[in-house]
């Protein structure tokens, strides 16, 4: 009940007029690409559900995403991009401009995942085959084979993050490979720092990147 009331309070606060600039400050990407990825169009009920899951919905800022991608010491053609908590799919759309082998989004909220699929179909058209959106709890996601870039915009609470990292560690034990975790808004960075199989590659106040040793 306490978690429910806290989420309701955050959702109400987010809907207040003084938050208008924050809600509508990320429209440029949508206007440029004729898609709907902004949080401005997330209604109260969806934002409330997102907050219950751990955090409010935010779309990744293009300039920060590009900054993180530039930092990765990889040949993109050898990697699959995975966005855990993919929301309306903005990070998936931005990842499609890089030559990743495949692009996978994992989103728990059905309505957000449906919008992501529509955005991908509209923006990528016949080239959408390498982008997949899964409606799934991140804890139940099976990481694909091959080198990975795992992207997160602080999408879920600490306990879920712990479970996701445990699944990733198990996947690496079964099939050792290069993995980079690109974490925007790194509230739970100590969890990454505590993984003996990861080391910090780069970071700023707004993001960190860890890679397998």
User: Helical segment tally?
Assistant: 9
End-to-end Cα distance: 42 Å
Mean pLDDT: 85
Order of helices and strands: HHHHHEHEHEEHEHEE
Determine Rg (CA atoms, Å): 17 Å
β-sheet strand percentage: 15-25%
Number of strands: 7
What structural class do the secondary elements suggest? alpha/beta
Q: Helicity level, as a percent range? A: 40-55%
Structural write-up:
This protein is of the alpha/beta class and 213 residues long. The protein is built from nine helices and seven strands. It has a seven-stranded mixed sheet. Strand 1, helix 6 and strand 2 form a beta-alpha-beta unit. Helix 1 (2-14) crosses helix 4 (44-53).
Name a few traits of the molecule.
alpha/beta; 213 residues; globular; seven-stranded mixed sheet
Summary of the model, kept short:
41% of the residues lie in helices and 19% in strands.
Question: How is this fold's topology laid out?
Answer:
Blueprint: H1 2-14, H2 20-24, H3 28-33, H4 44-53, H5 62-71, E1 80-84, H6 90-95, E2 102-107, H7 110-124, E3 131-135, E4 148-153, H8 158-174, E5 179-184, H9 189-193, E6 198-203, E7 207-212
Parallel strand pairs: 1-2, 1-4, 2-3, 4-5
Antiparallel strand pairs: 5-7, 6-7
Helix pairs in contact: 1-4
């Amino acid at each position: 009940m306490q978690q429910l009331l806290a989420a309701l309070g955050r959702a109400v606060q987010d809907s207040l007029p003084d938050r208008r600039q924050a809600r509508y400050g990320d429209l440029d990407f949508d206007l440029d690409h004729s898609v709907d990825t902004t949080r401005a169009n997330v209604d109260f009920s969806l934002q409330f559900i997102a907050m219950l899951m751990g955090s409010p919905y935010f779309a990744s800022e293009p300039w920060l995403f590009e900054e993180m991608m530039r930092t990765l010491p990889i040949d993109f053609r050898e990697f699959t991009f995975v966005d855990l908590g993919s929301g309306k799919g903005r990070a998936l759309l931005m990842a499609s401009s890089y030559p990743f082998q495949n692009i996978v989004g994992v989103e728990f909220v059905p309505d957000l995942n449906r919008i992501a699929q529509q955005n991908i179909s509209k923006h990528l058209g016949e080239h959408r085959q390498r982008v997949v959106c899964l409606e799934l709890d991140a804890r139940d996601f099976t990481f694909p084979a091959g080198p990975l870039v795992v992207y997160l915009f602080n999408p879920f609470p600490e306990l879920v993050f712990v479970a996701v990292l445990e699944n990733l560690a198990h996947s690496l034990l079964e099939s050792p490979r290069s993995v980079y975790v690109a974490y925007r808004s790194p509230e739970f960075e100590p969890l990454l720092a505590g993984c003996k199989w990861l080391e910090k590659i780069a970071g700023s106040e707004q993001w960190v990147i860890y890679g397998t040793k």
